[in-house]
Every structure is written in structure tokens, then in C-alpha cells.
Design a protein that fits this description.
This protein has four helices and no strands. With about 130 residues, it is mainly α. The chain has one domain. Helix 3 runs antiparallel to helix 4.
Length: about 130
């Protein structure tokens, strides 16, 4: 059953369902990542934690929670760098993981830049 037939009065229900889905996704990702934090520090577990953190960061961004997004993204970056260090003796695997680390850093830079632009625009509007 789709929501196409619902009228304006049901838009609150749609928003409520969407909010519940995001909160559920947030909880599921936290539950997935938490046991992995304490897992053995093998490369596969480390990579799984990073992927779960990156998904959680996307959920935070979708919720317009910039602070949680940045914190989660930074945690993913730290864990990715640990993974790169772990794979120093395996050049091909390390290369792939270095590229993933670079992608995380690029995403952080984009968000930081967007935040600076938002702040600049707010200051300009407030000063005018």
C-alpha cells in the first residue's frame, strides 16, 4: 500500500513513519557496530565497523544532525586509519583502504566547508 492516495491530513503520519524509520535505522546501526567494537582487531572486523559507522553517519546527515554526523565520520576516519596501519605489509590491500580513508577525509572536508558557508550566510543575513 503506497501513500499516494493519502490526503494532506495524513502528511503527519507520513512524517511520523519516516522519523520512526530513521530512528530505527540509527538504532540498528548502533547495535551492529557496538559488538564489533569489542571484536578482535582483525582486518575484516575493522572494515565492518568502519562501514557501519559510515552508514550511521549517513543516517545522521539525513536527520540534519551535523554534529552527530561529524563525530561519527571522525570515528570512522580514526578506525579506517588503524586499519591502514594494520595492513602495512600488504600493499594492495593497504592501497584500497587508503583510498577509503581518503574518501572519508574528503567527505569530512565537504561537510566542514558546507558548515562554514552556512555560518557565513547566517552572519551576512544577521548583519544586513
Amino acid at each position: 500500500m503506497g501513500f499516494k492516495h493519502l490526503g494532506r491530513q495524513d502528511s503527519g503520519l507520513q512524517c511520523g513513519i519516516a522519523c520512526f524509520a530513521r530512528k530505527t535505522a540509527d538504532g540498528v546501526l548502533l547495535n551492529c557496530a557496538t559488538p564489533l567494537y569489542s571484536a578482535l582487531e582483525d582486518a575484516g572486523s575493522m572494515e565492518a565497523v568502519v562501514k557501519a559507522l559510515l552508514l550511521l553517519a549517513k543516517v545522521h546527515k539525513g536527520q540534519a544532525n551535523s554534529q552527530a554526523f561529524m563525530q561519527t565520520q571522525m570515528e570512522a576516519r580514526e578506525r579506517q586509519l588503524r586499519l591502514v596501519n594494520r595492513l602495512r605489509g600488504e600493499p594492495e590491500l593497504a592501497r584500497v583502504q587508503k583510498e577509503a580513508a581518503a574518501d572519508i577525509c574528503f567527505t569530512l572536508a565537504q561537510e566542514y566547508d558546507a558548515g562554514l558557508n552556512r555560518n557565513y550566510e547566517q552572519v551576512r543575513e544577521h548583519a544586513a
